[in-house]
UniProtKB/TrEMBL annotation:
Short name of any one Pfam family annotated for the protein: Anticodon_1
Class of this enzyme: ligase
Domain Valyl-tRNA synthetase tRNA-binding arm: 150-214
Species: Aurantimonas coralicida
Catalytic reactions of this protein: tRNA(Val) + L-valine + ATP = L-valyl-tRNA(Val) + AMP + diphosphate
Residue stretches making up the Methionyl/Valyl/Leucyl/Isoleucyl-tRNA synthetase anticodon-binding domain: 8-90
Any one GO biological process: valyl-tRNA aminoacylation
InterPro entries per record: M/V/L/I-tRNA-synth_anticd-bd (IPR013155), tRNA-bd_arm (IPR010978), tRNAsynth_Ia_anticodon-bd (IPR009080), Val-tRNA_synth_C_sf (IPR037118), Val-tRNA_synth_tRNA-bd (IPR019499), Valyl-tRNA_ligase (IPR002303)
GO CC list: cytosol
Highest rank taxon of the organism: Bacteria
Protein name as it appears in the record: Valine--tRNA ligase
C-alpha cells in the first residue's frame, strides 16, 4: 500500500526531527550531522531550529483512533460471542451512516478491515436476516452470519448455556433465601454465593444478547 508506506515515512521523519532536537544539547555534533543528512534541504542549522512544542496533539485524530478502537473491539466481541471462526473474513454493513461515520469509514476502512478481519465494508439501508447488530462509535453496523456459522447449532448452544446459567441463579437464590444458611454460614461463604450469582447473571445476559442477535 503506497499511501500507507508514504504516511509511515512522513511520520517517522517528523518523529526523528524532534528526537534530534531533543538530543542536540547533549550530542550537538552528531545530531547536527544527522539533521543535515536526513533531508534534502533544511531551512536552518539544528542549533537554530525551534524547540519541540507540547501542543502537537490533534484532537480530531485522537477522536478517530478512539472511534476505530471502539468499532474493532465490538466487532471482535461479537465474533467471539457467535463462534465465528478466527480466520473467517466477514462482511460489515454500515446501516445508514451519517456523514461523519461515512467519512471515517473512508479514511480508516483499510485499517478496520485488517484489524477486524473483514472482507468488505458496505453501506446498507437495513440489516439482513441472521445478522448480528453492532452499535459502536455512535453508529450502527450489521455483521451477516449466514454461511459463516451453523445458525441452528449456535442457537441451540446458546439456549442450553442460557438455561444452565438461569438454573444456577435459581439454585443460588434458593440458598440465599434460606435464613438458616445466611445466619450460620461464614460471611465470606455467603459473599461468594452472591458473587457467583452476579457472574451467572452477567453470563445469562450475555447469552441472551447473543440469541437476540440471531433472531
Amino acid at each position: 500500500d503506497e499511501a500507507a508506506a508514504n504516511e509511515t515515512r512522513i511520520v517517522m521523519g517528523s518523529v526523528l526531527d524532534r528526537i534530534y532536537a531533543l538530543l542536540h544539547p547533549f550530542m550537538p555534533f552528531m545530531t547536527e550531522e544527522l539533521w543535515a543528512t536526513t533531508a534534502e534541504t533544511r531551512p536552518s542549522l539544528l542549533c537554530h531550529a525551534a524547540w519541540p512544542s507540547l501542543d502537537f496533539a490533534d484532537s480530531n485524530a485522537a477522536d478517530d483512533i478512539n472511534w476505530l478502537i471502539a468499532v474493532v473491539s465490538e466487532i471482535r466481541s461479537v465474533r467471539a460471542e457467535m463462534n465465528v471462526p478466527p480466520g473467517a473474513q466477514a462482511a460489515l454493513l454500515a446501516i445508514t451512516p451519517d456523514a461523519a461515520t461515512a467519512a471515517r469509514l473512508d479514511r480508516h476502512g483499510t485499517a478496520l478491515k485488517r484489524l477486524a478481519r473483514l472482507a468488505s465494508i458496505e453501506i446498507s439501508d437495513g440489516a439482513p436476516d441472521q445478522s448480528a447488530q453492532i452499535i459502536a462509535g455512535g453508529a450502527t453496523f450489521a455483521l451477516p452470519l449466514a454461511g459463516m456459522i451453523d445458525i441452528a447449532a449456535e442457537q441451540s448452544r446458546l439456549e442450553k448455556a442460557e438455561a444452565k446459567a438461569l438454573a444456577e441463579i435459581e439454585r443460588i437464590d434458593r440458598k440465599l433465601s434460606n435464613q438458616k444458611f445466611v445466619a450460620n454460614a461464614p460471611d465470606e461463604v455467603v459473599e461468594q454465593e452472591r458473587e457467583k450469582r452476579e457472574a451467572y447473571r452477567l453470563e445469562a445476559e450475555k447469552l441472551a444478547t447473543g440469541l437476540e442477535r440471531l433472531r
